[in-house]
Amino acid sequence: MEWLNFVVCLTFAAFITDVFSSAGNEWTYRGAKGPEHWHLDFPHCGGMKQSPISVATSEVIIDMERLTPIVFKNYDTSSSVDYTLENNGHTVQVDLNVKESEVTGGGLPGTFVAQQFHFHWGATDERGSEHDINGKHFPMEMHVVHYNAKYGNITSAINKDDGVAVLGFFFEIGRYNDHFQEIINHFRQIMYKNDMVDIKSMPLVQLMPAKLSKFYRYLGSLTTPPCYESVTWTLFNETIEIAEEQLVSFRTTVYENVKDDVNYGRDISDDFRMPQCLFRRRVYASHPDLQYAIDTTEDPTAAGTSSQPLIALLISCVTFLLLSM
Ligand SMILES: [Zn+2]
């Protein structure tokens, strides 16, 4: 019977390894470890201040007194130390090796230091952004992640109420964007998960739109596990233009899998979480132009397509409330 004992032990060991390898540290945008299941391994993901959200422009509160223009410090300089571009299996991320760019003002609860920026994009132009405006999604969204200077580093700040500030930018298809091309040119060096390469740093201001005074503000979370509810969100109204062919590079060059994984290969496209319930939160806006009702008379087809996801979101929020009672 010794062999049976051995087989049982081996099976148990394999089971334990499987459980432990997936528990707590593996997550994806699809399947059994996808967003609907994140809260099982990462309880914060089931919280009531989660991100992203759908911004309903007719519901926002104008707060010009508090939401003054954000002050950008050292966003127009590039340091001598390079950026590190990496494929982490979930996104393309650029780590800022020198922490010298800061934001303050604009109703932010402190001074925040830029740590990294990364992207969320869709397999088609109709989707990709995490946040949406009245149900309208954009083909890509960039997040510039900052930590509150008073905590000293991102690791200490990441789970504090006022620990993180993310600046969110929406993209739209348009002109060829030279600044982003400098990043895209290195995609072939980070095709697979855990690949990284040092690249030339560039002033952050080159990656951002020209007008930054109109923005939405709300309190939310990291949009990936562990989903800590530590983020002061700023979503800018002006979009960044990028050429379709450049978006295609995002869609086709970088993969979720490690290089040696011969059984599995998938590009990172559609690395976004669905909008979460707002619950008691309010969204604020820095300018009266940002508060408007959706004009349903002008383009009835567009209104029809955009209201459907909002209804689905409403139903899921009501279900969430009923289940948590
Ligand atoms: Zn993000």
From TrEMBL:
Classify the main location: secreted
The keyword ATP-binding appears for this protein: no
Question: Any idea of its EC number?
Answer: 4.2.1.1
| GO cellular component annotations of the record | extracellular region; plasma membrane
Family of the protein in this entry: Belongs to the alpha-carbonic anhydrase family.
GO terms of molecular function: carbonate dehydratase activity; zinc ion binding
Q: Which SMART domains match?
A: Carb_anhydrase
Outline what the protein does: Reversible hydration of carbon dioxide.
Keywords attached to this entry? Glycoprotein, Lyase, Metal-binding, Secreted, Signal, Zinc
Name-wise, this protein is Carbonic anhydrase
Against InterPro entries, the record matches this protein to: CA_dom, CA_dom_sf, Carbonic_anhydrase_a-class, Carbonic_anhydrase_a-class_CS
Q: Which PROSITE patterns match?
A: ALPHA_CA_1, ALPHA_CA_2
Compartments, record wording: Secreted
> Catalytic activity annotated for this protein?
hydrogencarbonate + H(+) = CO2 + H2O
Would the keyword Endoplasmic reticulum be found if you checked this record's keyword annotation? Answer: no
This protein's superkingdom? Eukaryota
